[in-house]
UniProtKB/TrEMBL annotation:
Organism of derivation: Shimwellia blattae (strain ATCC 29907 / DSM 4481 / JCM 1650 / NBRC 105725 / CDC 9005-74)
Keyword Cytoplasm on entry: no
Keywords, comma-separated and alphabetical: Membrane, Transmembrane, Transmembrane helix
InterPro entries: Uncharacterised_YbjM
Pfam families referenced in this protein's UniProt entry, alphabetically: YbjM (PF11045)
Protein name, entry field: Inner membrane protein YbjM
Keyword Acyltransferase (UniProt): no
GO CC, one annotated term: membrane
Superkingdom assignment: Bacteria
Length: 129
């Protein structure tokens, strides 16, 4: 059971880094050209939701641990790979907002999971009568 916990943490860590690299490389001009640069942060919902799917008990904490493990790698990538006109503190604030969106993704998954469980229980009670 402990290995299953680490699987969700590692899954979130790897997915967060992949999404970070994809947003920084591929989607750099896509959202700025449309006039909405903050829309790229919505993609960070995916790592939290997927890791929350794989988590068994701590569906919010385990994805957050994975994101916190991935954060130093993203900061190092910001300084070594990407040339930015923004300051270090602005980039760090952008990364922390990505952490927020990833945690929100795990909370959204938890909401959908709870709603499905409640609905499934409601359907069982109505079919028994």
């Amino acid at each position: 059971m402990r290995s299953h916990r680490w699987m969700s943490v590692i899954c979130c860590c790897v997915l967060f880094i992949v999404v970070f690299l994809a947003v920084r490389w591929n989607m750099r001009g896509a959202f700025r050209a449309a006039g909405h640069p903050e829309l790229g942060l919505l993609v960070f919902l995916i790592p939290g939701a997927v890791a929350s799917f794989f988590a068994r008990q701590e569906r919010v904490v385990e994805p957050l641990i994975g994101v916190m493990i991935a954060l130093p790698a993203c900061v190092i990538a910001l300084h070594t790979i990407f040339a930015s006109e923004r300051s270090f503190w602005q980039e760090l604030a952008w990364l922390f907002s990505a952490v927020f969106w990833s945690s929100l993704g795990s909370l959204c998954f938890l909401l959908v999971f709870a709603m499905r469980r409640k609905r499934r229980g409601f359907d069982r009670r109505s079919s028994e009568k």
